[in-house]
């Protein structure tokens, strides 16, 4: 159904007149030209497409745009609030928490939501919170270290 | 200029623009004494440009897929040129701008292209110092270079920058002499670990991959796929798809596609296509494939034959006959294959996720019936390759559709397409007959590998009587079901074949060590005089805190080692096996690696950690499910990749060897992962697994069957 969807995208009021059954991932990557959010599996089982709605991490490939009506949507492009890098972004660079970079946006958004909920998680809590995000390059150990670094730096999304 | 053959001349003039361009053309043998068999560009191997503002642009046919070569190549160039790392920009994998390259695979970037790149940068420095000498009126020998500034030794006020030297110039120099490279002791940038140059873009979502490229008017294509390899379409009905608004339908030979400006609309259009297929009856499955592979593989070719095999067998104290197996494994990069193609005025531009931009250019040219010089392949960041993006079907598909429709076309595969058209690591079989004498010395090694090739099958153990035979790896039968070795395409997968060969060899070594009641580390040291390997083993043992005991010791710890891509590597691991569930929990891995001179230690460690982490997949879970040509794994719900909870503490040790040129780093550590884990499971519970992956069910079964240390010949 064609609907006018009003929401905040990375802090900016945004309106989309479109079929509200469309998938957030493809609207972000297509209509809104925000290609930092990646397609990996299309079934919500890899985490590459993770964005935040409010402070919750969601799989944008499993989210219809009608679900963002009136909501705050943050994508990787909006993670650095006000131009200053998010502590997670600094930590991923410091620790080398990426290789090919394709899963990285989803890792960061998932971790940002995790730290919002639990600013100082234990290693086990981080592992559990990140378990649904896949990385094929094997940067896991460094991603965990990066999230711990950001946690120490007092990261909050 | 004329020497820059292989580069589009028009592009090359643009490339020159202004400033100083230094091209290096060396004979392959001068660069690559140890790798003469490899195809290598014979015209211009490497070049770089110094702009009037002092910026340096380095052109390389290699691509960045996570392995960090954007950074390591910049380090090498900056080191030899004498400039700050920040002044270097890398242009990678653009066929109109970069020197020809066969592809990014085989841990070859640093080993093979590195010397050419360093030579080009060193020669550029020599050219610039020569220019400075004339400008400053002092002999070259009196000049020193630092951060792109040439000054007179002892009088730094007399100076000229590279940028000033390049100003108003339009110079290109072609140099055919081998440059004098900096010594390790002189390194300022190599041997250090600067932050990766691709980091900022990758953590901000700005890094662009092939599917992120946008061109006005572009269409998203979805292509009709068969339900199984070798299936033939009996009937295709496109009438419903044709009625959908905004949908373009293409039906050309074997290519049936629907296109739309919106990707989801293209997907809906594909659902509206009705097709009936005839599937060949192909009984091959993950269980019967091994016998089939052995039966249908070409006859094994001898790689090594020394001593007296029959005599050794007759004289042996113990003989061991074992067969090892491993199923098909997917590359499963997080980025599925993607490409965007634009065909205009007889010229094609293709942005592709590819490990082989130049071969991709040639294949696109062939498909479009264009001259290769009218095809440009641009490689953005690649979201993981591992060998799978040496296959570039998607680039050809996008190019054909762009030519047919006259619109820019993006083809980006779904995960199911990625699984279907993957070129899998082949199912393979290794048969070994080996023997020891009463002193626990290996006296016989008779090794036959089917379908994996012989990479890393080399023997660094001192066995007097040995034979190694291997049967080719990439046999893909177009002839139809039952006639080919594999039911679908197979191809190179991170250290092709080596994972299988090292699993088999290092398992067999452990089998013999246990039979000899010897500690597995001590048994290896007893049987090899290879000084480099011994040193790597010792380094791993020191870091691990190895406690000597014959296996199975109940500790759940193990060792495996190998030589691969010019590097020597030893792994030690600690596991816990849950006897009830068969689940293996890896708690610790130590990796010690001698990779010669290390360009970027932290980058090398990332590759070592990534290798063993990825290796946990083929070791414990990854095995493609299929029925004939039908691929049953279509997504990550059934095909499991290593996850955060699997990853143990990984400690890496770089064994110093600065006398050796830089060796490969992207693959060596993965090759011994399966072996060290099989040995650790044995050490923990006394059950040996001869097949990968070691799924919980198989571990449980091995424990139940009481498969012990020794399989004796009848």
Outline the fold blueprint:
The complex is a heterodimer of chains A (157) and B (714).
Chain A: E1 2-9, E2 12-19, H1 24-29, E3 50-53, E4 56-59, E5 72-74, H2 87-95, H3 104-117, H4 123-130, H5 140-152
Helix pairs in contact in A: 2-5
Chain B: H1 9-16, E1 19-24, H2 28-31, E2 46-50, E3 56-60, H3 69-81, E4 88-92, H4 109-136, E5 143-146, E6 149-152, E7 155-161, H5 162-166, E8 170-175, H6 199-204, E9 219-223, E10 232-237, H7 239-242, E11 248-252, E12 255-260, H8 263-271, E13 274-278, H9 289-296, E14 301-306, H10 309-315, E15 318-326, E16 338-344, E17 347-352, H11 357-368, E18 375-378, H12 393-405, E19 409-412, H13 415-420, E20 428-436, E21 442-450, E22 465-470, H14 498-515, H15 520-526, H16 531-544, E23 557-564, E24 567-577, E25 584-594, H17 601-620, E26 626-627, E27 630-631, E28 649-654, H18 668-671, H19 673-685, E29 691-692, H20 696-705
Parallel strand pairs in B: 1-8, 3-4, 9-19, 15-29, 17-18, 21-22, 25-28
Antiparallel strand pairs in B: 1-2, 2-3, 5-6, 6-7, 9-12, 10-13, 11-12, 14-22, 15-20, 16-17, 16-19, 20-21, 23-24, 24-25, 26-27
CATH level-4 homologous superfamily of the largest domain in chain B? Aldehyde oxidase/xanthine dehydrogenase, molybdopterin binding domain
Residue-averaged pLDDT of chain B, rounded? 91
| Rg of chain A, alpha carbons | 15 Å
Give the name of the CATH superfamily of the largest domain in chain A. Beta-grasp domain
């Amino acid at each position: 159904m064609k609907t006018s969807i009003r929401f905040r995208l990375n802090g900016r009021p945004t309106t989309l007149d479109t079929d509200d059954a469309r998938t957030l991932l493809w609207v972000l990557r297509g209509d809104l030209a925000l290609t930092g959010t990646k397609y990996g599996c299309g079934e919500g089982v890899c985490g590459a497409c993770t964005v935040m709605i409010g402070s919750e991490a969601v799989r944008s490939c499993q989210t219809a745009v009608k679900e963002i009506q009136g909501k705050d949507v943050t994508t990787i492009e909006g993670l650095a609030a006000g131009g200053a890098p998010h502590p997670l972004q600094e930590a991923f660079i410091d620790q080398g928490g990426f290789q090919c970079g394709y899963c990285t946006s989803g890792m960061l958004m998932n971790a940002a939501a995790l730290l919002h909920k639990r600013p100082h998680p234990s290693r086990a809590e981080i592992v559990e919170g990140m378990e649904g995000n896949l990385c094929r390059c094997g940067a896991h150990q460094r991603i965990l270290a990066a999230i711990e670094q950001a946690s120490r730096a007092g990261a909050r999304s | 200029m004329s020497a820059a053959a292989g580069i589009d001349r028009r592009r090359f003039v643009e490339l020159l623009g202004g400033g100083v361009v230094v091209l290096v053309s060396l004979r392959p043998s001068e660069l690559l004494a140890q790798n003469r068999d490899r195809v290598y560009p014979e015209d211009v191997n490497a070049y770089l440009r110094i702009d009037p503002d002092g910026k340096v642009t380095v052109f390389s046919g290699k691509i960045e897929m996570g392995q960090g070569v954007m950074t390591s190549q910049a380090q090498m160039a900056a080191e030899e040129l004498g400039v700050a790392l920040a002044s270097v920009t890398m242009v990678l994998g653009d066929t109109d701008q970069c020197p020809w390259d066969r592809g990014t695979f085989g841990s070859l970037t640093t080993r093979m292209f590195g010397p050419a790149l360093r030579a080009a940068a060193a020669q550029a420095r020599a050219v610039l110092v020569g220019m400075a000498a004339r400008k400053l009126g002092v002999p070259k020998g009196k000049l020193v270079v630092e951060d792109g500034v040439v000054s007179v030794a002892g009088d730094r006020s007399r100076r000229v920058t590279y940028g000033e030297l390049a100003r108003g110039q339009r110079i290109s120099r072609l140099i055919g002499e081998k440059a004098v490279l900096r010594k390790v002791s002189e390194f300022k940038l190599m041997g250090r670990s600067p932050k990766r140059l691709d980091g900022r873009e990758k953590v901000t979502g700005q890094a662009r991959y092939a599917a992120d490229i946008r061109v006005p008017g572009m269409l998203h294509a979805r292509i009709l796929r068969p339900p199984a390899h070798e299936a033939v379409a009996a009937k295709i009905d496109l009438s419903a798809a044709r009625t959908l608004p905004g949908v373009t339908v293409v039906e050309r030979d074997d290519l049936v596609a629907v296109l739309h400006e919106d990707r989801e609309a293209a997907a809906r259009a594909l659902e509206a296509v009705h097709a009936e297929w005839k599937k060949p009856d192909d009984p091959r499955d993950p269980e019967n494939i091994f016998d089939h592979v052995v039966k249908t593989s070409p006859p094994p070719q001898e790689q090594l034959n020394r001593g007296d095999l029959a005599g050794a067998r007759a004289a042996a104290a113990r003989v061991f006959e074992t067969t090892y197996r491993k199923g098909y494994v997917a590359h499963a990069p997080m980025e599925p294959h993607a490409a965007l193609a634009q065909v205009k005025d007889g010229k094609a531009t293709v942005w592709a996720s590819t490990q082989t931009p130049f071969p991709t250019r040639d294949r696109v040219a062939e498909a479009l019936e264009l001259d290769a010089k009218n095809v440009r392949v641009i490689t953005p960041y690649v979201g993981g390759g591992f060998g799978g993006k040496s296959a570039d079907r998607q680039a050809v598909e996008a190019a054909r559709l762009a030519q047919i429709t006259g619109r820019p076309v993006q083809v980006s595969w779904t995960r199911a397409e990625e699984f279907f058209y993957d070129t899998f690591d082949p199912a393979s079989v290794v048969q070994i007959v080996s023997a020891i004498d009463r002193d626990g010395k290996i006296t016989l090694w008779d090794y036959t590998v089917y379908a994996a090739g012989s990479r890393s099958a080399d023997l660094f153990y001192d066995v007097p009587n040995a034979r190694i035979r291997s049967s080719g790896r990439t046999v893909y039968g177009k002839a139809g079901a039952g006639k080919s070795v594999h039911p679908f395409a197979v191809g190179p997968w991170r250290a092709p074949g080596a994972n299988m060969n090292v699993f088999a060899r290092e398992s067999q070594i452990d089998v013999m060590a246990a039979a000899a009641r010897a500690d597995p580390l001590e048994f290896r040291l007893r049987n090899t005089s290879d000084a480099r390997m011994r040193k790597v083993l010792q380094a791993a043992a020191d870091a691990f805190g190895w406690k000597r005991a014959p296996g199975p010791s109940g500790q759940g710890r193990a060792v495996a080692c190998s030589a691969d891509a010019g590097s020597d590597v030893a792994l030690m691991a600690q596991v816990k096996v849950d006897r009830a569930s068969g689940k293996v929990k890896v708690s610790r891995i130590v990796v010690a690696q001698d990779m010669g001179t290390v360009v970027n230690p932290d980058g090398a460690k990332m590759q070592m950690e990534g290798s063993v982490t990825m290796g946990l997949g083929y070791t414990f879970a990854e095995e493609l499910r299929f029925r004939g040509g039908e691929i049953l794994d279509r997504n990550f719900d059934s095909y499991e990749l290593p996850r955060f909870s699997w990853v143990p503490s990984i400690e890496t040790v770089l064994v110093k060897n600065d006398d050796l040129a830089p060796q490969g780093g992207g693959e060596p550590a993965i090759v011994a992962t399966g072996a060290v884990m099989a040995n650790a499971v044995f050490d923990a519970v006394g059950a040996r697994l001869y097949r990968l992956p070691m799924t919980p069910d198989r571990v449980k079964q091995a424990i139940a069957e009481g498969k012990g240390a020794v399989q004796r010949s009848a």
